[in-house]
Every structure is written in structure tokens, then in C-alpha cells.
Design goal:
The protein is an alpha/beta fold and 428 residues long. It is built from 12 helices and 17 strands.
Length: 428
């Protein structure tokens, strides 16, 4: 734990955000309402405006941006102008901004033709800089230590260069774009360990690079990206509002900034025997979910359960037709729900006990799947055989080897698929 901070002269507040990726186009869907599609395309800009609005609404003292302001280093002028406009609004309300550059917007890629407002402090990429934030009366509130990326592919441990906290510093914040301990799906840029950060003795670490909001320690936090862009970025997205009391006590709140939510939704359709009724049930479920979320939802639907409709869904175009209808005519409600994709994991209505007792291929499938789950030697052999599927660079970027529980699910899903095809003639 960091040493207790010196009591600031007054309580203060700041917002921590990261990975804005301005200019990144959020995926839309064919047949989607044009207004929603256009809003999705500009969703990263909408999230940035929401961050600025809440900074002003909450009357914070300053904003921290932990890298990857832009999605690419291609001098996207619109993204830079939108970013500048947000900073300008902060300055008009007496709010400072402290920014480090990340792997998507390194120092050597930023346009020098667009000057940022005076209230924006951008940290050097040469070495960690220390700046003291003062209130309007000139009293020191916080020491902020930050360092930017010089180029896109930083493999050095930048955290090792950060100085230990000085006694005379007030509440101290580290601002860095980095990979702590490695993270699936993210390049290990500026890799470091928790211990590297803890040794500095700072009160708070405002981190960027990992898009999933993550609390590594009570005071070491990835804010995550403020707007999910695809099914790899599901769930709530926002920023952190940090309140520091006069006694040094810290309160961290998560505030939503996303205008559209990506979500995977599992719907159990067990016992449903009519496609029309199935669609009605799905529509009710999706309308309820989007109403609860309070924003439009782009979701991946996973249909589960035993149903007599299984074959009609998977073999006769039922899933494709259902997707088309839900996209063209979204579930009714204040907030639309758009299906990104429908995955059918239903199973046919099959008496497994009866199949297991049979002395044929159906019974053998059931017995082999039981062995794959219960017999350790057989389980190990099967896991070794499928392990190679997860070793390619492409596969590792999107998935990882299943754990024991996931492995059991895969086995049972494979069993259900085989039983379905064999018991119904094998037509797919």
C-alpha cells in the first residue's frame, strides 16, 4: 500500500479516462436504422463529449487521459479537432487536462499543425515528468507523474523509470499507458509488474491500454475504453470519477459514458414448439434488457435449451430468417436492441438415458463423451489433441484454451450435435 498522503488544502476531484480511440468506427449492421447506424459510426466522439459534459457537471479539478486518444497515427484531422474542442470546453470551465500518449497515438505521430489549448498538459516521451496541479488560489492539490510513448512499439519497462514519491509532494498520481503483467488480446507494450508500480508509493495510478475496466489494486486502475466498439468489448463502459477528501480518503466511482452497449445474451428456449412464439419470447426478452440498460444494445444472442425447433433453426434457415426480422424490425421499446449475430446452441429433444442404453452409434457417442469428462487419461489426450487449435497468433488474439468447465460444455455440445444429426438422418 502507498504511504498515507499529506492532507490537501481542500477536497478535490478528477476524472480518469483512457483509450478514447477517436476516429475508430464502431461496427453497424445491415438493415439497421440509419439514425442509429450513423450514431454508432460516431460513438467514440459521443463518448468523448459525454466525458467532457460530466467533468463540467461534476465540477472536477482536472481530467487524466492515459493514452490512445486517437485510433491510429494517420493524422485524422477530425479526431484531433474533436479532441481539441473538448479540451477547449474544459478550459472555459477552469478544468485542466493531463495527457500521455500511447501506442496508437505516439509522440512521433501527433500533428504539430494543431495546437492544443493552454489548459492541456501533454507529458514528454523522453522521461517521466512531474507537474503539480494547483487550485485557482495557487494551492497545490496533486502531483502528477507521467510519460508518453515516443513511438508505437515500446517494449521497455517505462514504469521502472518513474521516480519514487517525494515527501513534499501532495496527493500523487502516476499516469501511464502500459501492460501490467500481460493481458490477453493486447500487445505487451511498456510491460511492467504490479510491484514496479507499487514501489513508487503513489496514491493513485491512472492506467491505459487495457480496454476492459480493471482494478488491479485499490489505487491501480485501468479505466477501460469509454465506448465498446464490437463484441470483443462487451459490457459497461465509462470513466472513473475520483474524489479525494480533506483527510486523504478516496472514493472512486464508475460513470457510464457509452451511448451503445455491446452485450452477449443467453436465452433459454426449452419447451418452445412454435417459431412465431419463439420470436415473440425473444422480442420481449430483448426489449426488457435494453430498457434495463437504458441505452441501445448491440447484442449477440445465444439460444440454449432442448426444443423440438432445433432442426428447423439450424438446418432450415430459421436462425438466418430470425436475424433478418430482428434487424429490420427491432424489438419495441425506448431503446432498440440489434442482434449482431444469433448463435444456436439448442439441442433436440432426445432421451439421453435411452440413447445411452442403446448398443449402437448413439449409445457409443454418449459413453465416449462421459469418458471424455470423467476419465482423466482420456480427458488429457483429447485436450492435447485440440490444444494446437489455440496456438496460432490469430487464435490467441481472440480466444484461449478452454478451462475445465468450458471443456465440459464443448464436449456436451459436440455430443448434442452428433445425436441430433444421427437421430434425424444427418441432414444439415
Amino acid at each position: 500500500m502507498p504511504p498515507p498522503s499529506q492532507s490537501p488544502f481542500r477536497p478535490f476531484r478528477f476524472v480518469h479516462t483512457a483509450d478514447l480511440h477517436l476516429g475508430s468506427r464502431v461496427m453497424s449492421l445491415p438493415g439497421m436504422d440509419q439514425a442509429i447506424s450513423a450514431d454508432l459510426a460516431d460513438a467514440t466522439y459521443g463518448a468523448w463529449r459525454e466525458i467532457i459534459d460530466l467533468c463540467i457537471r461534476e465540477a472536477v479539478d482536472f481530467l487524466l487521459v492515459a493514452g490512445d486518444v486517437y485510433d491510429s497515427a494517420d493524422q485524422n484531422i477530425r479526431a484531433q479537432l474533436q479532441f481539441k474542442e473538448g479540451l477547449k470546453r474544459l478550459g472555459e470551465n477552469g478544468i485542466a487536462a493531463y495527457i500521455v500518449r500511447g501506442n496508437h497515438d505516439p509522440d512521433d505521430a501527433w500533428s504539430r499543425s494543431i495546437t492544443m489549448p493552454e489548459n492541456a498538459f501533454i507529458f514528454s516521451s523522453n522521461e517521466p515528468e512531474v507537474t503539480i496541479h494547483h487550485d485557482q488560489e495557487g494551492r497545490p492539490l496533486a502531483a502528477i507523474v507521467g510519460m508518453s510513448f515516443a513511438t508505437a512499439h515500446i517494449r521497455d519497462n517505462l514504469a521502472e523509470q518513474f521516480p519514487q514519491r517525494e515527501k513534499e509532494w501532495p496527493y500523487t498520481i502516476g499516469l501511464l499507458h502500459c501492460s501490467v503483467g500481460g493481458a490477453r488480446g493486447h500487445e505487451p507494450y511498456a510491460p511492467c509488474s504490479l510491484q514496479d508500480l507499487r514501489r513508487c508509493g503513489y496514491d493513485y495510478w491512472a492506467l491505459g491500454h487495457i480496454h476492459q475496466p480493471t482494478v488491479l489494486d485499490s489505487h491501480i486502475i485501468y479505466a477501460g475504453n469509454p465506448q465498446g466498439r464490437d463484441m470483443g468489448e462487451t459490457g459497461e463502459r465509462g470513466c472513473r470519477l475520483v474524489t479525494v477528501g480533506a483527510d486523504g480518503a478516496v472514493e472512486v466511482e464508475v460513470l457510464r459514458t457509452c451511448r451503445h452497449l455491446w452485450k452477449e445474451v443467453a436465452i433459454d428456449v426449452s419447451g418452445t414448439e412454435d417459431l412465431g412464439i419463439l420470436e415473440e419470447e425473444i422480442r420481449r426478452e430483448l426489449a426488457m434488457i435494453s430498457e434495463e440498460e437504458g441505452v441501445s444494445v448491440v447484442g449477440r444472442l445465444v439460444l440454449t435449451g432442448a426444443t423440438t425447433l432445433h432442426r428447423e433453426l439450424v438446418a432450415k434457415g430459421g436462425i438466418v430468417a430470425l436475424e433478418e426480422r430482428l434487424i429490420e424490425d427491432p424489438p419495441a421499446g425506448r431503446y432498440p436492441f440489434y442482434p449482431e449475430r444469433i448463435i444456436c446452441r439448442t439441442v433436440p429433444v432426445i432421451d439421453r438415458d435411452a440413447a445411452l442404453a442403446r448398443d449402437d452409434i448413439l449409445g457409443e457417442i454418449c459413453r465416449q463423451s462421459d469418458l471424455a469428462i470423467s476419465d482423466e487419461s482420456g480427458r488429457s489426450r483429447l485436450r492435447a489433441e485440440i490444444s494446437s487449435l489455440y496456438q496460432s497468433t490469430t487464435a490467441r488474439a481472440y480466444t484461449s484454451e478452454p478451462d475445465d468447465e468450458e471443456f465440459d460444455v464443448i464436449i456436451r455440445e459436440a455430443e448434442a450435435l452428433l445425436l441430433s444429426q444421427l437421430s434425424e438422418g444427418g441432414e444439415e
